[in-house]
Amino acid sequence: MKEIRLRYAEEKDLDDMAIWFADEEVMYWSSGSHGETLFTREQLAERLATMNSLHSGRWWMIDVNEGAKGWRAIGRVTFRNYEPVVHAVTIGITIGNKEYWGQGYGSKAIRAFVDLLFRRYNLHRIQLDTFQDNIRAIRAYEKCGFKQEGKLRQSFWTTKGYQDRVIMGILRSDWERKQE
Ligand SMILES: CC(C)(COP(=O)(O)OP(=O)(O)OC[C@H]1O[C@@H](n2cnc3c(N)ncnc32)[C@H](O)[C@@H]1OP(=O)(O)O)[C@@H](O)C(=O)NCCC(=O)NCCS
């Protein structure tokens, strides 16, 4: 598998992101693909320009090392909803370049992001949610140490109808055990 790196999203990434987030298949798996989740380049640019603090969350690009061709962005990881008392955040991941699905790049990026967040932000807990049909995502998160913690029945609306929301989380203690 090729090397990956995470870096802050920049303006030059907007063209890639605009393609990924206008793709109905990518957006279905990312967030159920209802109309409000399809972003234009202008909407992405506005979000990027205003995100600087921990509280508003940040976007990191996932780059793959393509050797002589250099680094190529294949997706994005994000966090949101920083809870200062609990020291928790909610994360999300989208590999927007579909050629890279199912080859371990998502798990590799999730591991790198979890390491970065626990080390840099002194977090106690990282959580996320997805919907019941997204088995590939659930499996990728489990491989990285996330546990399924519960379900909110039919709380996710998708173009295939209502689905259960699967809540997953990893604690600092789970992560520390994996470092040993
Ligand atoms: C979800 C996502 C990040 C996962 O990354 P990935 O690189 O595709 O996944 P990985 O190859 O690292 O791991 C996927 C695992 O799921 C397994 N899997 C995939 N489809 C499966 C299925 N239908 N049933 C059972 N297991 C399945 C794979 O075999 C693999 O597990 P293994 O390594 O033990 O064999 C990526 O596919 C993606 O961005 N998808 C689109 C957006 C999305 O779903 N985002 C997450 C929203 S919460």
TrEMBL record:
<keyword id="KW-0808">Transferase</keyword>
<dbReference type="InterPro" id="IPR000182">
    <property type="entry name" value="GNAT_dom"/>
</dbReference>
<dbReference type="Pfam" id="PF13302">
    <property type="entry name" value="Acetyltransf_3"/>
</dbReference>
<dbReference type="GO" id="GO:0016747">
    <property type="term" value="F:acyltransferase activity, transferring groups other than amino-acyl groups"/>
</dbReference>
<feature type="domain" description="N-acetyltransferase">
    <location>
        <begin position="4"/>
        <end position="173"/>
    </location>
</feature>
<protein>
    <submittedName>
        <fullName>Protein N-acetyltransferase, RimJ/RimL family</fullName>
    </submittedName>
</protein>
<dbReference type="InterPro" id="IPR016181">
    <property type="entry name" value="Acyl_CoA_acyltransferase"/>
</dbReference>
